[in-house]
């Protein structure tokens, strides 16, 4: 294994976690993103990769035989980016492709991630697609974290529905396992936590771990002020309504054993995650 594993989006939480997992397996890693100085893993080769600057693509792929492709889910031109980059990767001799996708993307026709999957699959029929559920880590950063620490509340239009939240580190471990495997494991891999729980349960677990009282405030999916209640006033509500409609229908409660199957260890439970990250809410 003299050639590198290339991880795109390496300064993001999924990319950085994957770099750390690959390094732990002893694989040579090239971490690529627009700002490689922001990659929080030192034992990797850092390189600049800007989707809008094709001059950075060839150097990133030179000497690479395995690729973990992370294209941001909201990039409208994500499918075009993926197609062009994978075509170049194939010309450069990349032989293993793992793509970060999302649970339910196969039915989300018209979304950028659906297009990314389709583009890669047409070029690389034996590519592997990681389709994780909601990240547990959403509660340790971003707007959910902000309302937890500032107001002691989690606000979402999810009713009593349950979600099989998964830890980003578990997703990274699955990606590393797929990239390091001796044989291809193509197709979609649904990645979830070991059980499903509601947002009230999440609030209770964060309260227990941090000592900070946190409550769940369910919102009305049809509220005209939904996006303001979610902390993003003025934003288009269609994506949020589509997402939470799936949650309310039970579509995010599915539980799989993918983490154990790929990594030979159980997926992280939310209580364990909350204890490990209690300082984030203090």
TrEMBL record:
Gene3D superfamilies the UniProt entry points to: NAD(P)-binding Rossmann-like Domain (3.40.50.720), UDP-galactose 4-epimerase, domain 1 (3.90.25.10)
SUPFAM superfamilies, A to Z: NAD(P)-binding Rossmann-fold domains
InterPro entries: Ergot_Alk_Oxidoreductase, NAD(P)-bd_dom_sf, NmrA-like
All residue ranges annotated as the NmrA-like domain in the record: 3-218
Protein name stated in the entry: Uncharacterized conserved protein YbjT, contains NAD(P)-binding and DUF2867 domains
């Amino acid at each position: 294994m003299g050639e590198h594993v290339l991880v795109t989006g390496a300064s993001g939480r999924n990319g950085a976690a994957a770099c750390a997992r690959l390094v732990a397996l002893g694989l040579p890693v090239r971490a690529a993103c627009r700002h490689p100085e922001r990659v929080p893993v030192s034992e990797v080769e850092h390189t600049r990769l800007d989707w809008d600057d094709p001059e950075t693509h060839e150097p990133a792929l030179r000497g690479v035989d395995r690729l973990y492709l992370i294209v941001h889910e909201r990039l409208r031109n994500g499918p075009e980016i993926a197609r062009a980059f994978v075509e170049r990767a194939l010309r450069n001799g990349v032989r293993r492709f793992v793509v970060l996708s999302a649970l339910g993307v196969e039915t989300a026709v018209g979304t950028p991630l659906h297009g990314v999957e389709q583009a890669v699959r047409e070029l690389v029929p034996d590519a592997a697609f990681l389709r994780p559920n909601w990240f547990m880590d959403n509660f340790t950063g971003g707007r959910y974290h902000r309302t937890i620490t500032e107001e002691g509340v989690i606000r979402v239009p999810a009713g009593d529905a349950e979600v099989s939240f998964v830890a980003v580190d578990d997703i990274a471990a699955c990606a590393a396992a797929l990239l390091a495997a001796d044989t291809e494991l193509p197709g979609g891999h649904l990645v979830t936590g070991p059980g499903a729980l509601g947002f009230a349960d999440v609030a209770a677990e964060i309260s227990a771990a941090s000592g900070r009282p946190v409550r769940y405030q369910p919102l009305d999916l049809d509220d005209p002020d939904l996006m303001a209640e979610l902390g993003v006033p003025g934003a288009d509500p269609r994506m949020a309504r589509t997402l939470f409609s799936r949650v309310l229908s039970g579509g995010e409660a599915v539980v799989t054993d993918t983490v154990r199957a790929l990594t030979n260890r159980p997926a992280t439970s939310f209580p364990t995650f909350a204890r490990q990250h209690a300082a984030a809410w203090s």
